[in-house]
Amino acid sequence: MKEFLFLILLTWPVLAKGQDVNTDYQSFRKDLLDSYQKYRKGVLDDYADYLAGVWKEFQLFRGVKRDETPKPVAAPNVENIPANPVPKRLPDPNVSPKGEPQVQEKAPVIKPAEPAKPINAPILDFTFYGVQLRSIKLKVLHLSSLEPSAISNVWRQYQKSNPNEVINSLASLSQLYGLNNWFTTELVRRYVDTLLKNGSSSDRIVLQHFLLSNLGFDIRLASTQRQLLLLVPCKQQMYERSFLNIDGQKYYVFYDNISPIKENSIAIYTCSLPNDVYKGDLVDLVYKQHSLTLKSGNDKKCTLTDGRISVSGNVNSGMMEMFRHYPLMDVSYYAASKVLPAFHKNVLEQIKPQLSGMTQRQAANALLHFVQYAFDYATDGEQHGYEKPYFLEENFYYPKNDCEDRSIFYAFLVHNLLGLDVHLVQYPGHECTAVNFGNQSVDGDGYLYNGKVFIICDPTYIGASIGQCMPSYQNIQPIVEEWY
């Protein structure tokens, strides 16, 4: 019975689509199979040989800080604004690069499932963010040393062990629960940590690398002579994490979860892979084309209001825990993410009728004042102890937020409810937004960008209306981040 239920789990992402989309699925599956075969011919079949080769030393770079300027401890209020303020032309902005390198031709993130067949294998139960999951239990292997030849030998044995059922089961769990690239890597690491909880850190790292490589990621293996590490490349800049630069691509360093070895000064080595073959996909930190369904704990209902506009939403506490230590990236990528698309839609549907009868400018002002007054203010350091920009859904969970979170929320509302182009605008120690009102003449502080006027709208400048930039930033060149 357990094997039958697990077989249903493995095939659910296909079965749940129904007969009407079977043709589309078969076409999609064929494309994945063709791409995966190209990937196999690229690097995977020969990976053990590369691991047995020469490992080169690379320089370890310290993690980049996004902005080291302290944020204000309290949200500033508008004071002594003249009755008819004179609009100010702000310095032309710099444009923040998207941070996404030229990506190789895309291969499947997960290996396509083979046709369903009876499963006769031991099962491993493990916990992932409070949810009990189950997968095929892989027979584990152990390193004899950290020498390249020993690592290569273990990799080759894993390849010969026919691990497809394990890889397919992990891929199916990722699909079933709507996990993005980042959470898929965490899922694999949690599976291995459970499977090898009493093993060595190097045994865990080797198996994590093997499974993630077989799932289609260009994740590398590295050594410090004392321990093995994972090197994770991302489409986006990951802040505050050390990295290696390999052929122009940042590979971020991750240690064993259970028993990492503290090393003050280390040399890091990794094997070379040929430049002319496909090596796998980069990890995409943006949450897109998925709807996260992994839930644990209780739902929390939150109502946000400024006394004029109100909106309510339910968020799952376990789901919010998943994002509590999400890798730190540029604010624009939080704004571009949709963890719960239905939640986004519901927020918009609640607010839209409350703007009925307003002009575009009136609605933009109403939304600005809503975001200014609907939240209490606190810096991330005060509330969390570290820098923590929110995905939109998190604003309905935490009691306070700061300038990045308000800017993400306001940009989302204005772009989706009013159809206007919005910039996220970065100043030292501060984030706000700027809106292009199209052909409308809107007075206020703003800047020119590609021949268009963008008017400052600051959700943290309490009491300010559209077009009012904080005086302390009026002569500072902003950095704009397009996000939609």
Structure description:
With 484 residues, this protein is of the alpha+beta class. It folds into two domains: 2-62 and 103-271, no CATH class; 288-482, C8orf32 fold, CATH 3.10.620. It has helices spanning 2-15, 22-42, 47-51, 148-160, 164-176, 181-195, 201-214, 317-322, 331-336, 341-351, 360-373, 380-383, 403-418, and strands at residues 55-58, 94-95, 123-128, 131-136, 220-223, 228-233, 243-246, 249-254, 268-271, 299-305, 310-316, 376-377, 400-401, 421-427, 430-436, 446-449, 452-457, 479-482. A six-stranded antiparallel beta sheet has the order 1-9-5-6-8-7. Strands 2-18-14-15-17-16 form a six-stranded mixed beta sheet. The radius of gyration is 25 Å and the shape is elongated. Mean pLDDT is 87; it is low at 1-21 and 99-118.
**Total number of helical segments?**
13
Mean pLDDT, nearest integer? 87
The largest sheet has its strands arranged as 1-9-5-6-8-7
Structural class by SSE content: alpha+beta
Global outline: elongated
Overall number of domains: 2
* Largest sheet report: 6 strands, antiparallel
Low-confidence stretches: 1-21, 99-118
By DSSP, the count of extended strands is 18
Terminal-residue CA separation: 47 Å
